[in-house]
Amino acid sequence: MTSIRLLITDDQMMVRQGFMVLFDVDLDVGVVGLAVEGSTDGWFLDQAAASGM
Prior knowledge:
By secondary structure, this protein is α+β, with helices and mostly antiparallel strands. It contains 2 helices and 2 strands; from the N terminus they run E-H-E-H. Strands 1-2 form a two-stranded parallel ribbon.
């Protein structure tokens, strides 16, 4: 079971993908989304809360 849900935000695609690969290996950490800019974070978190994620 994933105990930590992670939203990765960075303006560089290679950085986002690198962190996704790094954290996806750990069974306790689940990457739930990738975002390019901080303004996307608020929208994603609102959607996650609404869906019970």
